[in-house]
Write a structure and sequence with these properties.
Blueprint (H helix, E strand, L loop, with lengths): L1 H6 L8 H38 L3 E5 L18 H9 L5 E7 L1 E8 L2 E10 L4 H10 L17 E5 H7 L6 E6 H14 L4 H4 L1 H12 L3 E3 L2 E5 H15 L5 H15 L9 E4 L1 H15 L3 H16 L2 E9 L10 E4 H8 L7 E6 L5 H12 L3 E5 H4 L1 H39 L1 H9 L4 H32 L1 H10 L7 H4 L10 H27 L3 H5 L3
Parallel strand pairs: 4-11, 5-10
Antiparallel strand pairs: 1-12, 1-13, 2-12, 3-4, 3-6, 5-11, 6-10, 7-8, 8-9
Helix pairs in contact: 2-4, 2-16, 2-18, 2-21, 6-12, 8-9, 9-10, 10-11, 16-21, 18-21
Family: Belongs to the ABC-4 integral membrane protein family. LolC/E subfamily.
Membrane topology: Multi-pass membrane protein
Keywords: Cell membrane, Membrane, Transmembrane, Transmembrane helix
Amino acid sequence: MLAKRYLNPRRAVLSSFTLISLIGVMLGVLVLIVVMAVYAGLERDVKGRLLGFTPHILVRSAELNFPQEDSIEETQTEPSWRKLAEEATRIQGVAAATAFVADNVILDVGSLQRPVSFRGIDTSDPSQIKGIADMLDLKNYPGSTADLGLDDRAVISSLVAEQFHLRIGDTMRLYSTRNFEGVMNAYKATEKPVVREAFPDMWKLATDLFSAEWVKQDGLEQVSVEPFKELYDSLLGIYDEDIRQPERDLVENLLRAMEAGEREDGDEVFRFSAENKTILNEAYRALGETDAEKMDGEILKGLKSLVLPKEATVVGIYSASQMAVTPELFVPLPLAQDLAGLGDQVQGVALRLDNAYASEEVAAAGRKVLGPARHLETWGDQYQAFFALINQQRVMMYFALSFIVLVSAFSMMAVMFTVTIQKRREIGVMKALGAAPGQIVRVFLYQGMILGVLGSALGVGLGRLVIHFRGLVQEAMRTMGFDPFSEALTGFGVLPAYNDPTEQAMIAVIAFVLCSLAAMVPAFFAARSDAAKSLRNL
């Protein structure tokens, strides 16, 4: 009763001291509530966007066929990633397993060019299409769609659209960065001599072997094993060297013709039919008649098809944020494989889970199922640095903004010291009437507790109200020419926010505890005052 009377001694609506203390606590709690809710909303929204197209778990394996030259010994007909995907779907919690391709290309529109990143989207996976569709900026680009199909289409970021002045239906050219490696290799090959000049020892072996008289027996032509094997090994080594592609094809033909020879166990000769011997001679003759200038002309002519860009149509534009790194282009998987130079292969297998937030548990189970040769990386691992940065910023904001509540508590302490000085006579009277020090302390402690409860409750309530009407607050700021949360920076027309009841309750409790502790200090000094001196107003 005394605490409430001291908070409003003149029976007005609120005393000035009480109002100052109450507003200080309320503002501190309000700022903390709003800022933390916006941070939580940004984190949840960014995670939702990333999970729309990012693999929940990415499986990589050395067995995946990355772009390479076909082997002489064997040719694989089915991409190995499909088998890996089938194995991965057996893991409990995995909803789908699709191809993963991501790389960089040179985007060319008019006179503007710059490298951009792209991500391949498996259009047969509805969850990936839905993830892209949820990101589309239908407000500023109403014709946007996530229907990539299998054609050369693309969904681009709003940052790329603004920089290159692209709109729905526009066409852009994409130059694969892999092309430049092929161009350089082709030009380097033209600087080298032909095979018979570059490898004279091999060519002497071939000349001696094919110029010598072959022994005929039972309608088959025979050649000794040793020189034949020596030439074959030399040609196999040359095939792996950096030579012109036309000559590599001729060397391959000669090797395959030599493989047609038959040899029984223990024999010292290889036997060839007349037809196979003719093919062998033709392959040798073709390799011996190569013309460097003619081959270089064919190579340089072939570069035209190598460096031709892919033309893609913009079918959608999504709202990008500078606060989160996202691919600048989304393209269909076949186009992504072409741009990355992978053929039918991929860089990994992307797993979509029933529950993306259970990725660590599913990855642990997947490592047991798929074995140690396969590397599994969760979406948390892929964006660990990014989310660590967000969490660090949240902690820094907690630390910085908590000082507002702390300053409010110190202000309340100063006010309570003033009140104790004003109430020295009343304190003296209470002590003269037999009030114990604990009772004196409780009078002022209860004042702090009442202010803490009211300030915390008002701060939480007003904070939630500001969060609810944050769109109107942003519009009002923009009308005044002040926009600290521009859509170009955040990627959101209205700032996302998420009310976490547990977090907000914790902020209110901390504010209440600080206010209570702030009232304890002046209450302690008031309880220790001398009753006689207080009554004499000394």
